[in-house]
What we know:
Layout: H1 9-25, H2 35-38, H3 46-49, H4 58-66, E1 75-81, E2 84-88, E3 92-94, E4 101-108, E5 114-118, E6 121-125, E7 130-136, E8 141-143, E9 146-147, E10 154-156, E11 159-165, E12 170-176, E13 190-191, E14 197-201, E15 204-209, E16 213-218, E17 226-230, E18 237-241, E19 255-263, H5 274-283, E20 288-295, E21 301-302, H6 304-310, E22 323-332, E23 336-341, H7 363-372, E24 376-380, H8 390-394, H9 406-411, E25 417-421, H10 427-438, E26 444-447, E27 451-452, E28 469-473, H11 480-488, E29 492-495, E30 499-506, E31 512-513, E32 518-521, E33 525-534, E34 540-545, E35 548-553, E36 557-564, E37 568-576, E38 587-591, E39 594-598, H12 606-626, H13 632-651
Parallel strand pairs: 1-4, 3-10, 11-18, 19-20, 19-27, 20-22, 24-25, 25-26, 32-39
Antiparallel strand pairs: 1-2, 4-7, 5-6, 5-8, 8-9, 11-15, 12-14, 12-16, 13-14, 16-17, 19-28, 20-21, 22-23, 23-24, 28-29, 29-38, 30-31, 30-33, 33-36, 34-35, 34-37, 37-38, 37-39
Helix pairs in contact: 10-12, 12-13
Amino acid sequence: MYQDPMLPPVVARALAEYRSLLADHGITWGEPPLGYVRMMSFLRFPDEAYQMSNVPDLDRAFRDALRGHTTPDGLTVLQLTPNGLRLEARPLAVLSATPLPGVLLVDSARDEPATVHVDGAPYPVPPGGARLIEITTASTLTIDGEPVDLSVLTRAAVPARLRLSAGFPCRWSVTTADGQGWYPDGADRRRDYHGEPFFHGDDLLVEVPAEPLTVRVTRGMEYSTAEAAVHPAPWRETLVELAPERLYDAAARGWYGADLHVHLNWAGDIVATPAAAAAMQHGEDLHVLNLVAGNVAGERVYDKEALHHWAGRDLPWSDATHVARMGVEYRNDLLGHVHAFGLVAPPSSYHTGFVGQADWPPNGAACGELRELGAVIGYAHPFHGRVEHPADVVRAGERNCEARALVVDAALGLVDGMELLHFSEIPGTVTVYRRLVGAGNRLAALAGTDTMLSFTRQDTVSSPPGWERVYARLSGPLSADSFANAVRLGRTFATTGPWLELTVVDEATGLHADLGDTLHLRPGDRVTVTVRTVGPEVERLELHTADGVIATGPGGELTTTLDVTTPTYLVAAASGGRHPRSLHREVYAHTSPVYLDVAGRHVARPEDVHWCLEWLNLLSTTIRDHARLDSRDQLRDHLDLIEKAITVYRSRLI
């Protein structure tokens, strides 16, 4: 009997179970209602969601954030007034009777409660309240028993067909003038951070209306976007041959880009399959994809079955220039999360601290086990705000996923790097990274999008994998092992799109150093530093040592010299404002260091070492005051690791 290599029975059973959870519970899949779980329905409209407070009545908060603004795509508003009702909708063109999904916001200005029935299910709406409800264009809707005409949600269109061809797998977008997206039959109806509809593949048929259309095609960050205006003839097939141009070819230079933090399933509005991940990886020309098994807010670990089946092996769609693996996200919301790539077997633990569990063992214990399993390990989305003082790291002990234990695990050599690029704010993370490196820790600059393929519209989460990447310089052909080894050596840079390279030359010897390398210098030796970028979105270049900025300039190329008297490091950063090539709020790229050792000593800037020591002192207090622990022995395990880290940092001051 034939068995689909993409869908072994154990994985198929897990996906069937996820579909039942989606059918029974909606977008949350029944996960415990932690803050980020409660926000899932609203983050499909990120501009409004970011204005909301985490209050008990999120529906009302969403309604209030929407007032005074244009109704976002995909949302229908039903206003209940004292004298009747008013339906605000942007009609969708339809070619068949197949229902299209949507979201309904019921906004009541009445002094009495109302009950809305959608497809027979009741939804109470309090006086002056609001309710967000999943609907389709075929839904039936009644208010207190009175039917509401939903025919305004759609308009009939004359059908046509496009055949899309680029000659290789790509990311496509097909839209009508009003922004409505059109997809191949059976494709998930995905939209990215900018709200752009997209799907992946080549030689694709798309049923469309016989109206003016815009077709766009790209292939991840190494390519430009090509665009064509098309007006297909009714009832006929129109061929659109369109291909993006390369901006740079990283693999030709020996560099390969990875997204180390992608979820196949993590709750959401659909259940994602391995085939969907394969189409996205090839359509984005993403060299390395790490699909991580992880929990949301409870005990269930999503895609654990896939990890058990494929651990230590390339996923079936891997080839010479594309490697996909199942990895792990180990999570503790008080102490931070890590992702692991390249492990040869499943770990014994995936999370601590959830649903009343103890925050034990320490993250370092999990990192140690993952390291024994052959994984390369990085802290995920470490910090979510500005950081000036160690107190900004530990904050008030709130469970917000920030990487409070990173200072311990970095000192003890238990992690290989940290995400400088992730879905949240970048500057605070970069500040902490430079402090840790300046204090003597060797950490690679990493990137992980936290893309979740089971969401079709959800802020950055629904953008395609690889919209941020960590590029690593390999010494040979691409494989999971060669990529992991390059990360361990710090031969990396992280980027939202720009190509970024940094070269340092010792003027006395002529020796060249690239990312992750160390130059061994004498006091007073001079080095020449050059940084180069490719990409139209770069507005500013910066060169940094442990002491701060030493040179700035526009995008392109920047060269300067430095007389080195004490041990330090060099990193480069490229930045810019909002840009279509960046599926984030800003453009950014940052390298791992080139290390400049002097007279046999590695960088250990006293100000940075003391900064880390203060962080450790505050972390000790945070664990005493806020960790869920069942015994003094569990507390002692945490404090013992902190003491070992303190010893390491103090030794660097000698």
